[in-house]
Amino acid sequence: MFRKKNFHCVVLHKMLITNLKRFFSKIYLKTLNFLKFFLIYNIITEINASGMNFVISRDSHMNIIKKSSSCYGFDFFVRIILHFFIISHGIVVCVVFYLFNKQFKR
Q1: Looking at residue 86, what is its pLDDT?
Q2: pLDDT at residue 2 above 50?
Q3: Cα(93)–Cα(78) distance, integer angstroms
Q4: Residue 39 class from Cβ within 10 Å (0-12 exposed, 13-18 middle, 19+ buried)?
Q5: HSE-CB of 82 using CA atoms within 13 angstroms
Q6: pLDDT tens digit string along 40-94?
Q7: 63-93 exposure pattern, b = at least 16 Cβ within 10 A, e = fewer
Q8: In sequence order, what are the beta bridge partners of 106?
Q9: What is the 3-class SS of 32-64, one letter each residue?
């Protein structure tokens, strides 16, 4: 009787672990796909923006004037901080998933 009850606990424990691993692997893959998409999108955006570093405005006679803008404005630093947080979040998710798998492989 005791052995049979213990066997059921072991089976339930293994089922719980496999379901948790499956759940975390889905989150891990979705996060990696999001990071890939976001980084590729930002690289394309940065390449497009690097060629257009001027501001178009009009003077008092409504003539179009191109003024060069600085590349190191507030927007530049916000993008750097945003990239840092997103990349660090991706690294943390990868490390947590690796440690989770390592813990339950024993």
Answers
A1: 72
A2: no
A3: 23
A4: middle
A5: 10
A6: 676 666 655 555 554 555 555 655 555 555 555 566 667 777 777 777 777 777 7
A7: eeeeeeeeeeeeeeeeeeeeeeeeeeebeeb
A8: none
A9: HHHHHHHHHHHHHHHHHHHCCCEEEEECCCCCE
Cα–Cα distance, 23 to 54 (Å, whole number): 47
Total H helices, total E strands in the chain = 2, 2
Token reading at 31: 């996060």
Confidence category of residue 30, pLDDT binned at 50, 70, 90: confident
Write the DSSP symbol of residue 72. S
Cα–Cα distance between 64 and 61 in angstroms, integer? 9
Count of structural domains within the chain = 1
Residue where the block lists tokens 């497009």 = 48
The amino acid that residue 23 corresponds to is F
Alpha carbons 98 and 92: distance in angstroms, whole number: 10
Domain extent at residue 71: 2-104
Sequence-distant (6+) residues with CB within 8 A of 20 are 100
